Amino acid sequence: MIRVLVVEDSAAARELIAHILGSDAEIDVLGTASDGEQALAAVRQLKPDVITMDVHMPKMNGFEATRRIMEDRPTPIVIVSGAADVGGTATAFRAVEAGALAVLEKPAGAGHPDHRRTAEALVQTVRLMSEVKVVRRWPRSAPQDDLISPEPQPVSPPGAAVLIAVGASTGGPPVVQTVLSELPCGFPAAVLLVQHIAAGFTAGFAEWLDRSSSLSVRLPVDGERILPGHAYVAPEGFHMKVGGSGTICLSNEEPENGLRPSISVLFRSVAQTYGHKAVGVLLTGMGKDGALGLKSMKERGAVTIAQDKETSVIHGMPGEAIRVGAARYILPAGKIAAALRGLVSDTAQHCHEPT
To answer: Which end of the chain is more exposed for a tag (fewer CB within 10 A), N or C?
Structure first.
């Protein structure tokens, strides 16, 4: 049985989440808490396997509670919050920065058309997170002497990479944030990112990345020109591709691997347009999306990187990429930014200071 603690200040939402989780034969809801202080006491007493955590609560919010729990008794934490609560503040992703593993929208009530989808997402995520054994964030200043694969060497123009395509899913937000925050001011390549994330949270995710990175991070519009020193996050519900004229193309074509946006769609597009002047990075996540797309990039001469198993929350996507021979390098999360810096020239560009 997966032992779960539900932390939520709304009595109605708390009851709904507990009911959905308790309806699963493999999940036992040990107890509930209505604020962060109660959560800390309950974690010490009940020792749950997984915690679902609200963000906006009295006495102690979800961010502070997550930080304290990760210091006191590291436990897989799933942020369950209303997308509207995150909106312009990206509050939920501060909890991810503190060590939470995933962000989900609050499940809709019975009778709502989204009830089944959101309830299934909650149960599936709790099940997945219960299998995560190491949940602390890895050190940002990880030593640089134990690469699994040889350290990529700097590539001189005109062969230098000008575009980096990144794909991530479960466990991806903190890794993406780590990578982007370690790219320097004036980074002369663009980053295109597909992050599988709960509906309604993409804008808050991009805002959080923008605040913590020297790159300018935003959701693009169709036809927007790709600029160095900028990172573009695929908008919810749209595939993101690159055009031959150096622009972003958004489409609502059929989902691929059951997903839209799909990482594979982005990777194939980058392979066709940029070839050896691109880098592909496939990070932690469930499933196989991106693996064959990364292989297409490798076959076109791009440098390809897969995150290693040890630092992946779920090694599904990068593991599949390794299995099919798509990854030239297999790197821990803390070393990916250094590899990207080495693959891109040092041309100075306009700087975007993190806030």
So the answer is: C
Q: What are phi and psi of 11, to 5 degrees?
A: -60, -40
Say which range, 107-111, 327-331, 338-342, 348-352, has the weakest mean pLDDT: 348-352
- Which CATH architecture group holds 163-343? 3-Layer(aba) Sandwich (3.40)
Which 3 state secondary structure label does DSSP give 297? Answer: helix
The domain limits of the chain are: 2-130, 163-343
Letter for the amino acid at 188?
Answer: P
Q: Do domains 2-130 and 163-343 have the same CATH topology?
A: yes
Stated as kind and residue range, the H or E segment containing 12 is: helix 11-22
Question: And the tokens for 151?
Answer: 């350290």
Superfamily for the 2-130 domain: Response regulator (3.40.50.2300)
Contact 163, 192 (CB under 8 A): yes
Q: Mind telling me the catalytic residues?
A: 169, 196, 289
Range with the lowest mean pLDDT among 117-121, 141-145, 254-258, 312-316?
141-145
Q: Which of 324, 336, 229 is nearest to 281 (CA)?
A: 336
- The C-alpha atoms of residue 308 and residue 315 are separated, in whole angstroms, by 8
pLDDT at 144: 36
E strands in 77-174 = 77-81, 102-105, 163-168
How confident is the model over 75-86, as pLDDT tens digits? 999 999 876 554
- Of 194, 192, 168, nearest to 333 (Cα)? 168
